[in-house]
Amino acid sequence: MASQYIEAMVYAQPAPAARWKRWLGRGVAAWPRQCELCGDWGTEALCRRCVLRFAAPVPRCPRCALPGHADLPCGACQRETPEFDGARAVADYEFPWDGLITRFKFRQQPELALALSRRMAAALAQAPKAPTTLLVPMPLSVARLRERGYNQAWELARHLGECLHIEARPDLLQRWRDTPHQVGLTRQQRETNLRDALWVDPAHVAHVHGRHVALIDDVMTTGASANAAAHALKLAGAAGVQVWVLARTPRTD
Q: Is residue 148 part of a domain?
Protein backbone atom coordinates (compact mmCIF):
# COMPACT_ATOMS: atom_id res chain seq x y z
CA MET A 1 0.00 0.00 0.00
CA ALA A 2 2.78 2.44 0.84
CA SER A 3 4.46 1.85 -2.52
CA GLN A 4 1.13 2.34 -4.30
CA TYR A 5 0.58 5.61 -2.49
CA ILE A 6 4.07 6.91 -3.29
CA GLU A 7 3.58 5.84 -6.91
CA ALA A 8 0.30 7.75 -6.99
CA MET A 9 1.94 10.85 -5.51
CA VAL A 10 4.52 10.76 -8.31
CA TYR A 11 1.90 10.01 -10.93
CA ALA A 12 -0.59 12.57 -9.68
CA GLN A 13 1.29 15.72 -10.49
CA PRO A 14 -0.71 18.78 -11.58
CA ALA A 15 -1.32 19.03 -15.30
CA PRO A 16 1.33 21.02 -17.26
CA ALA A 17 -0.84 24.14 -17.33
CA ALA A 18 -1.39 23.93 -13.56
CA ARG A 19 2.35 23.41 -12.93
CA TRP A 20 3.14 26.41 -15.13
CA LYS A 21 0.63 28.60 -13.30
CA ARG A 22 2.00 27.50 -9.91
CA TRP A 23 5.57 28.29 -10.99
CA LEU A 24 4.48 31.61 -12.46
CA GLY A 25 2.60 32.46 -9.25
CA ARG A 26 5.81 32.05 -7.26
CA GLY A 27 8.03 33.91 -9.69
CA VAL A 28 5.91 37.02 -10.13
CA ALA A 29 4.42 37.37 -6.67
CA ALA A 30 5.27 41.09 -6.58
CA TRP A 31 3.87 41.86 -10.03
CA PRO A 32 0.49 43.56 -10.38
CA ARG A 33 -2.28 40.98 -10.25
CA GLN A 34 -5.97 40.66 -9.60
CA CYS A 35 -7.36 39.67 -6.22
CA GLU A 36 -8.77 36.16 -6.42
CA LEU A 37 -11.90 37.27 -4.53
CA CYS A 38 -12.86 40.72 -5.83
CA GLY A 39 -10.83 41.07 -9.00
CA ASP A 40 -9.25 44.41 -8.07
CA TRP A 41 -5.64 44.96 -9.09
CA GLY A 42 -2.83 44.96 -6.55
CA THR A 43 0.21 42.88 -5.62
CA GLU A 44 -1.49 40.19 -3.52
CA ALA A 45 -3.58 37.20 -4.54
CA LEU A 46 -5.95 38.11 -1.69
CA CYS A 47 -6.18 41.87 -1.27
CA ARG A 48 -6.17 43.51 2.14
CA ARG A 49 -9.72 44.80 1.74
CA CYS A 50 -11.08 41.29 1.08
CA VAL A 51 -9.09 39.83 3.95
CA LEU A 52 -10.52 42.42 6.34
CA ARG A 53 -14.03 41.92 4.97
CA PHE A 54 -14.14 38.14 4.59
CA ALA A 55 -11.46 36.78 6.94
CA ALA A 56 -11.59 39.06 9.95
CA PRO A 57 -10.78 37.08 13.12
CA VAL A 58 -13.83 35.99 15.11
CA PRO A 59 -14.00 34.14 18.43
CA ARG A 60 -14.07 30.38 17.79
CA CYS A 61 -14.35 27.28 19.92
CA PRO A 62 -10.74 26.30 20.65
CA ARG A 63 -11.64 22.65 20.19
CA CYS A 64 -13.63 22.53 16.92
CA ALA A 65 -13.21 26.06 15.44
CA LEU A 66 -16.93 26.81 15.20
CA PRO A 67 -17.82 30.43 15.99
CA GLY A 68 -18.27 30.76 19.72
CA HIS A 69 -16.26 31.56 22.85
CA ALA A 70 -12.52 31.73 22.28
CA ASP A 71 -11.61 30.45 25.74
CA LEU A 72 -14.15 27.70 26.37
CA PRO A 73 -15.15 24.65 24.31
CA CYS A 74 -18.61 24.92 22.78
CA GLY A 75 -21.51 22.88 24.16
CA ALA A 76 -21.12 20.17 21.52
CA CYS A 77 -17.44 19.67 22.37
CA GLN A 78 -18.24 19.54 26.07
CA ARG A 79 -20.86 16.86 25.45
CA GLU A 80 -18.65 14.83 23.11
CA THR A 81 -14.94 15.60 23.12
CA PRO A 82 -13.35 15.27 19.66
CA GLU A 83 -10.37 13.00 19.09
CA PHE A 84 -8.26 16.00 18.12
CA ASP A 85 -7.03 18.46 20.75
CA GLY A 86 -7.87 21.74 19.03
CA ALA A 87 -8.72 23.35 15.73
CA ARG A 88 -8.04 26.58 13.87
CA ALA A 89 -9.87 27.98 10.83
CA VAL A 90 -9.35 31.09 8.73
CA ALA A 91 -13.03 31.70 7.97
CA ASP A 92 -16.45 30.11 7.70
CA TYR A 93 -17.15 27.98 4.63
CA GLU A 94 -19.45 30.41 2.89
CA PHE A 95 -19.22 33.17 0.28
CA PRO A 96 -16.66 33.91 -1.07
CA TRP A 97 -14.44 31.15 0.36
CA ASP A 98 -16.65 28.33 -0.88
CA GLY A 99 -16.18 29.41 -4.49
CA LEU A 100 -12.46 29.99 -4.09
CA ILE A 101 -11.89 26.61 -2.44
CA THR A 102 -13.93 24.89 -5.15
CA ARG A 103 -11.64 26.42 -7.77
CA PHE A 104 -8.56 25.39 -5.82
CA LYS A 105 -9.78 21.86 -5.15
CA PHE A 106 -11.68 20.76 -8.24
CA ARG A 107 -10.71 23.05 -11.12
CA GLN A 108 -6.99 22.45 -11.48
CA GLN A 109 -5.81 25.58 -9.70
CA PRO A 110 -3.20 24.28 -7.20
CA GLU A 111 -1.29 27.56 -7.58
CA LEU A 112 -3.87 29.10 -5.20
CA ALA A 113 -2.28 27.07 -2.38
CA LEU A 114 0.47 29.64 -1.90
CA ALA A 115 -1.89 32.54 -1.17
CA LEU A 116 -4.25 30.37 0.87
CA SER A 117 -1.46 28.91 2.99
CA ARG A 118 -0.17 32.42 3.70
CA ARG A 119 -3.65 33.37 4.91
CA MET A 120 -3.62 30.27 7.15
CA ALA A 121 -0.21 31.26 8.54
CA ALA A 122 -1.46 34.78 9.28
CA ALA A 123 -4.51 33.41 11.11
CA LEU A 124 -2.37 30.98 13.11
CA ALA A 125 -0.08 33.84 14.16
CA GLN A 126 -3.04 35.46 15.92
CA ALA A 127 -4.00 32.29 17.81
CA PRO A 128 -2.39 30.74 20.90
CA LYS A 129 0.69 28.85 19.79
CA ALA A 130 0.61 25.06 19.79
CA PRO A 131 3.84 23.04 20.12
CA THR A 132 3.49 21.67 16.59
CA THR A 133 6.51 19.91 15.08
CA LEU A 134 4.95 18.04 12.16
CA LEU A 135 2.39 18.89 9.46
CA VAL A 136 0.37 16.05 7.93
CA PRO A 137 -2.18 16.57 5.12
CA MET A 138 -5.52 14.84 5.10
CA PRO A 139 -4.85 12.02 2.62
CA LEU A 140 -6.73 11.04 -0.50
CA SER A 141 -7.09 7.46 -1.64
CA VAL A 142 -4.82 6.31 -4.46
CA ALA A 143 -7.77 6.30 -6.87
CA ARG A 144 -8.95 9.80 -5.86
CA LEU A 145 -5.40 11.15 -6.05
CA ARG A 146 -4.97 9.87 -9.58
CA GLU A 147 -8.38 11.20 -10.57
CA ARG A 148 -7.82 14.71 -9.20
CA GLY A 149 -4.13 14.98 -10.03
CA TYR A 150 -3.04 16.47 -6.70
CA ASN A 151 -4.01 16.51 -3.04
CA GLN A 152 -5.14 20.02 -2.15
CA ALA A 153 -4.37 19.37 1.54
CA TRP A 154 -0.75 18.54 0.70
CA GLU A 155 -0.45 21.65 -1.48
CA LEU A 156 -1.48 23.68 1.57
CA ALA A 157 0.69 21.71 4.00
CA ARG A 158 3.92 21.98 2.03
CA HIS A 159 3.60 25.75 1.58
CA LEU A 160 2.56 26.19 5.20
CA GLY A 161 5.54 24.13 6.33
CA GLU A 162 7.89 26.38 4.37
CA CYS A 163 6.26 29.48 5.83
CA LEU A 164 6.27 28.27 9.45
CA HIS A 165 9.52 26.26 9.24
CA ILE A 166 7.77 23.06 10.30
CA GLU A 167 8.38 19.67 8.74
CA ALA A 168 5.59 18.56 6.39
CA ARG A 169 5.18 14.94 5.25
CA PRO A 170 2.61 13.58 2.74
CA ASP A 171 3.36 9.88 3.27
CA LEU A 172 2.72 9.30 6.97
CA LEU A 173 -1.07 9.25 7.11
CA GLN A 174 -2.76 7.21 4.38
CA ARG A 175 -6.25 6.36 3.24
CA TRP A 176 -6.19 2.65 2.50
CA ARG A 177 -9.57 2.42 0.77
CA ASP A 178 -11.56 4.75 -1.44
CA THR A 179 -14.57 6.10 0.43
CA PRO A 180 -17.62 7.68 -1.22
CA HIS A 181 -17.69 11.47 -1.38
CA GLN A 182 -18.58 13.02 1.96
CA VAL A 183 -20.63 15.90 0.53
CA GLY A 184 -24.21 15.84 1.78
CA LEU A 185 -23.67 13.13 4.41
CA THR A 186 -24.64 13.49 8.07
CA ARG A 187 -21.99 13.21 10.76
CA GLN A 188 -23.02 9.64 11.57
CA GLN A 189 -22.90 8.68 7.88
CA ARG A 190 -19.46 10.26 7.53
CA GLU A 191 -18.15 8.40 10.57
CA THR A 192 -19.44 5.09 9.17
CA ASN A 193 -17.96 5.97 5.79
CA LEU A 194 -14.52 6.60 7.32
CA ARG A 195 -14.38 3.73 9.80
CA ASP A 196 -10.95 2.10 9.56
CA ALA A 197 -10.19 4.00 6.32
CA LEU A 198 -7.26 6.04 7.69
CA TRP A 199 -4.03 4.68 9.10
CA VAL A 200 -0.39 5.56 9.67
CA ASP A 201 2.04 3.53 7.56
CA PRO A 202 3.67 1.08 10.01
CA ALA A 203 7.06 1.93 8.47
CA HIS A 204 6.62 5.53 9.65
CA VAL A 205 5.07 5.05 13.10
CA ALA A 206 8.37 5.96 14.76
CA HIS A 207 8.34 9.29 12.93
CA VAL A 208 4.93 10.14 14.40
CA HIS A 209 5.49 8.79 17.90
CA GLY A 210 5.80 11.56 20.49
CA ARG A 211 5.28 14.35 17.93
CA HIS A 212 2.78 17.20 18.13
CA VAL A 213 1.02 16.99 14.79
CA ALA A 214 -1.13 19.47 12.88
CA LEU A 215 -3.54 17.88 10.43
CA ILE A 216 -3.99 20.14 7.39
CA ASP A 217 -7.13 20.27 5.25
CA ASP A 218 -9.11 22.72 3.18
CA VAL A 219 -12.50 22.42 4.92
CA MET A 220 -13.82 20.85 8.11
CA THR A 221 -17.55 20.10 7.97
CA THR A 222 -18.73 17.77 10.72
CA GLY A 223 -15.26 16.89 12.00
CA ALA A 224 -15.71 13.18 11.19
CA SER A 225 -12.68 13.06 8.88
CA ALA A 226 -10.55 14.99 11.37
CA ASN A 227 -11.67 12.64 14.15
CA ALA A 228 -10.73 9.55 12.14
CA ALA A 229 -7.35 11.02 11.19
CA ALA A 230 -6.60 12.14 14.75
CA HIS A 231 -7.53 8.68 16.03
CA ALA A 232 -5.08 7.06 13.59
CA LEU A 233 -2.31 9.50 14.47
CA LYS A 234 -2.77 8.96 18.19
CA LEU A 235 -2.78 5.20 17.74
CA ALA A 236 0.63 5.71 16.16
CA GLY A 237 1.78 7.55 19.28
CA ALA A 238 1.26 11.23 18.39
CA ALA A 239 1.51 13.32 21.55
CA GLY A 240 -1.20 15.68 20.31
CA VAL A 241 -3.18 16.51 17.20
CA GLN A 242 -4.35 19.93 16.08
CA VAL A 243 -6.53 20.52 13.01
CA TRP A 244 -5.72 23.52 10.81
CA VAL A 245 -8.14 24.27 7.98
CA LEU A 246 -8.94 27.09 5.61
CA ALA A 247 -12.66 27.06 6.34
CA ARG A 248 -15.12 25.67 8.86
CA THR A 249 -18.66 24.83 7.83
CA PRO A 250 -21.07 26.60 10.20
CA ARG A 251 -23.73 24.61 11.98
CA THR A 252 -27.09 24.69 10.25
CA ASP A 253 -28.98 24.54 13.57
A: yes
| Strand, helix or coil for residue 243 | strand
Examine residue 253 and state whether it is found in any structural domain, yes or no.
no
Domain assignment present for 119:
yes
Q: 13 and 19 in contact (C-beta within 8 Å)?
A: yes
Sign of CA dihedral 10, 242, 69, 191: positive
User: Where residue 98 sits, what CATH number does that domain have?
Assistant: 3.40.50
pLDDT tens digits, the chain, 253 residues: what are they?
554 544 455 444 555 555 545 545 554 456 788 999 999 999 889 999 999 999 999 999 999 999 998 889 999 999 999 999 999 999 999 999 999 999 999 999 999 999 999 999 999 998 777 799 999 999 998 888 988 999 999 999 999 999 999 999 999 999 976 555 555 555 565 555 566 689 999 999 999 999 999 999 999 999 999 999 999 999 999 999 999 999 999 987 5
Alpha carbon of 183 to those of 93, 141, 176, 200: distances in Å? 13, 16, 20, 25
pTM metric for this prediction: 0.83
- Contact at 8 Å (CB) between 84 and 242? yes
Number of domains in the chain: 1
Q: Is residue 195 part of a domain?
A: yes
Q: Dihedrals φ, ψ of 129, to 5°? A: -75, 135
Q: What are phi and psi of 60, to 5 degrees?
A: -135, 150
Domain range enclosing 91: 2-248
**Residues sharing a CB contact under 8 Å with residue 187, sequence separation 6 or more, in sequence order:** 222, 223, 224
